[in-house]
Design goal:
By secondary structure, this protein is of the alpha/beta class. It contains ten helices and eleven strands. A hairpin with a 6-residue loop joins β1 (51-52) and β2.
Length: 292
């Protein structure tokens, strides 16, 4: 195996930046001979001449110029990893609250990235309804929450807007029935939106199932006993979107909103950044373009 030594790369960068071994040695708090030996060891390991030592100073050879870019990246990465693994600033516990219906596909990716990049930060995931999450956040029980809302509060950061759609069983006929059979969880924030919309257009509907269990709603819908409303792209596998050409009313859009606490911003902000990136990827937003 052939491995580059971070210490020798650090000395090489210091020589390149200072223009000489003597000045680099002073900067590194090493002797001139120690720095010279490190540069020689680096050249021997690569089989290349990195410094042109003619004249009073030193200049980089073409190989040295090429190595310098990689050396800076490797040393920066080394320092970043070491700092995050050993600095207690990057240590602690965060509580993240997320509604049931938007856990997939973003949250597993976020949790995995946090474990990889910040192994000393423990993320506790709490899943519930948006109203419950906001109550717990207000009481200080959760550090960060995501919600699905029609009109988020002023303190919220809207990550994306998603169409709210009608869903039924694959190939189902329940949506053609009158009165329209609907099923909703008792605490679902989409329930008042959907039922209010049906009322406004004068549709005849029947709440055939109201339950505290998401599973019970899934069973009723997948058995073609009722229809319900779900965020587009977040529907269960056993659901099928009802054609837009149906006479069911349009339900508009819902916002996925981020609320964050102010304490421990050093470890909270990286998690918020990951959430932003994941939901931007889902919605097809270019984060760089958005920042500009």
């Amino acid at each position: 195996m052939r491995n580059l030594d971070i210490t020798t790369l650090r000395s090489f960068i210091a020589v390149a930046d200072s223009g000489g071994v003597t000045r680099a040695a002073s900067f590194l708090n090493l002797t001139q001979s120690a720095v010279s030996m490190q540069i020689k060891r680096l050249e021997d390991s690569l089989g290349l001449t990195l410094l042109d030592r003619q004249g009073r100073g030193v200049v980089l050879t073409s190989a040295g110029e090429q190595l310098l870019t990689y050396a800076r990246r490797m040393v920066d990465m080394n320092d970043e990893v070491y700092g995050k693994l050993t600095n207690t600033v990057w240590e602690g516990e965060i509580t993240l609250g997320v509604p049931h219906d938007i856990i997939y596909p973003a949250i597993p990716n976020v949790m995995k990235a946090m474990q990889r990049d910040f192994p000393r930060v423990k993320v506790q995931l709490y899943s519930s309804y948006s109203s419950d999450l906001k109550d717990r956040f207000a009481r200080g029980e959760l550090d960060i929450i995501l919600t699905t809302e029609t009109r988020p509060d002023g303190a919220a950061e809207v990550l994306m807007k998603v169409p709210l759609r009608w869903y039924g069983a694959p190939g189902g006929q329940a949506w053609k029935t009158r009165p329209i059979p609907v099923a909703f969880c008792n605490h679902c924030s989409f329930r008042p939106v959907a039922l209010g919309t049906l009322e406004r257009v004068g549709a005849d509907w029947d709440l055939v199932l109201a339950s505290d269990s998401d599973r019970a709603i899934d069973v009723a819908v997948s058995a073609d006993l009722a229809i319900t409303s779900v965020l587009e792209g977040h529907e269960p596998a056993q659901f099928e979107a009802i054609p837009m050409t149906s006479d069911l009313p349009d339900l508009g859009h819902q916002s996925v909103a981020l609320y964050r606490g102010t304490a421990r911003s050093q470890i909270i902000e990286p998690l918020c950044d990951l959430l932003r990136r994941e939901f931007a990827a889902i919605s097809g937003v270019d984060m760089r373009a958005a920042a500009e």
